[in-house]
Amino acid sequence: MRPVSYSRVADVATAIGTVAADPDSTFLAGGTTEVDLQRIHVARSKRLVDINDLPLRQVEELPGGGVRIGAVARMSDVAQALPVRRRFPMVSEALLLGASPQLRNMASIGGNLMQRTRCGYFRDVAAPCNKREPGTGCAAMTGVNRGHAVLGTSEYCIATHPSDLAVALVALDAVVLTQGPAGHRQIPADDFYPMPGETPDREHPVAHGELVVAVEIPPLPMASTSNYLKVRDRESYEFALASAAVAVSLDAGVVTDVRLALGGVATKPWRARRAESVLVGAPATVESFRAAADAELADAVSHGMNAYKIELGRRTIVRALRTVTGDARMVSDDGNPP
Amino acid sequence: MKSYAETAGAVEVADTAVVRGPNAVVVRLSVNGTIRNILVEPRVSLLDALRDRLDLTGTKKGCNQGACGACTVWVDRRRVLACLTLAITCETREVTTIEGLSDGVHLHPMQQAFISQDAFQCGYCTPGQIMSAVAFLAEGHAADDAQIREWMSGNICRCAAYPNIRAAIRQVRDEAGTSGPDAAG
């Protein structure tokens, strides 16, 4: 790691003022991304401003059934927090299926939302990467892209967003609360992550010196039986190849409301609005689930090694929907896998 | 980029925080109950500080990028990775390493169980496995082997001694009766 200086701050105003005034500085929370990327010279801050003492660790119930999560709260603590487990189990599951126990003890919620892609070319400073160095090209297009996105891609970038938590938050219409020199902002989670387009280096709308202070999840009664399904190369301590956060409300076997978001297959935490619109009003059957999955993946684009993700994404949607609607059979009536 | 409603609360931008480094500064650490002052740059990891400055070489450097768990120590009694922790961030916190686990005379029950169950071959991952395992039992979800596998997945063993590592954890769990969530300490 290149030399860095260090400041430790105890209040939000000092944290913001300090980073905003020093263009070479950045916030340091759990460090699981920042220290790693500084060490491999992908991140190049010259000053780290330690925000771990800020009073932003609370998980609070909001009136009406929502939850507010402080930005410096640890993944492990949020996953175990009763309001989260009871009201939004998909959030708890997404957190517990991410990283390892040690990393979850370290990593903050704000840092989780701000984490960078795990694309190997982004992490390799010798490789071209439009996200790391705009205009240099994308080595993943014709390179090892087995783990890359099939939805939301552009000719500039096909990297996936690695957060499981963000997938659940996008499904739940959560709001990211920030504070910066210009004041407070409330940014819907879906808008927090832009599509890469021609500017994959612009990963979020947060300005230099602006700090994520909390996440608010609005009330959603049907989320109390929601779940998060994560499919990966090994059963633990691995990023998603495909994942789905899902909550469904049924009335007499018909879908009256649904929230569905995907991870691992897209360049951003992917709200599956096409699938949702197919599902609302449809019977909760495997056929409906397949139709929804087909609609969502209709425009998926493969770059070679990741072609399997199109079918994997479909199957992940179907399986997640079957699980959350109580039909957990892994073989459908026609004898084929869902 | 979309714009969002701004509310009151603009912050007057001022850089008022104390700056330390980038040259070496005195960092005050509490390790295994002892206060130690060391002269290190802010970029120095807790792992390197322990091994190279404090001669506490029980904590191992495996991947140095948060993937293997060999450097697992406790900060304020929670298991974390020393390679992704900067030493300077640990001031005011209590660090515990494998050297601080026993009372100096008797091995910790988990250390003894690793010997009894032959839970290692080369031994390089073992300090991290043990620090992780003790914390894991205190966390209180070691009811069965599936849970042990899941909650110990952050510690990789190149020799694949996993069956015996699980046996060691089961032994300590069953001796201490710490299988359920009520046993979290």
Note down, in words, how this protein is organized.
The complex is a heterodimer of chains A (about 350) and B (about 180). With about 350 residues, chain A is an alpha+beta fold. Among the domains of chain A are: about 5-50, Uridine Diphospho-n-acetylenolpyruvylglucosamine Reductase, domain 2 (2-Layer Sandwich); about 225-325, CO dehydrogenase flavoprotein, C-terminal domain (Enolase-like, domain 1). Chain A is built from twelve helices and twelve strands. Chain A has helices spanning about 10-20, 35-40, 75-80, 80-85, 90-95, 100-105, 110-115, 165-170, 190, 275-280, 285-295, 310-325, and strands at about 5-10, 25-30, 45-50, 60, 65-70, 175-180, 185-190, 210-215, 225-230, 240-250, 255-265, 270. In chain A, helix 5 runs antiparallel to helix 8 (about 165-170), helix 10 runs antiparallel to helix 11 and helix 11 (about 285-295) packs antiparallel against helix 12. The longest helix of chain A is centred in the C-terminal third of the chain and has 17 residues, at about 310-325. Mean pLDDT of chain A is about 95; it is low at about 330-338. Chain B is elongated and about 55 Å long. Chain B contains five helices and five strands. In chain B, strands 2-1-5-3-4 form a five-stranded mixed sheet, sandwiched between helices. In chain B, about 30% of the residues lie in helices and about 15% in strands. In chain B, helix 2 packs across helix 5 (about 160-175). Chain B has two domains: about 25-100, Ubiquitin-like (UB roll), CATH 3.10.20.30; about 110-185, Orthogonal Bundle (DNA polymerase, domain 1). The model of chain B is unreliable at about 180-185 (pLDDT under 50). Chain B has about 180 residues and is of the alpha+beta class. The N and C termini of chain B lie far apart (about 45 Å). At the A-B interface, strand 1, helix 1, helix 2, strand 3 and helix 6 of A face strand 4, helix 3 and helix 4 of B.
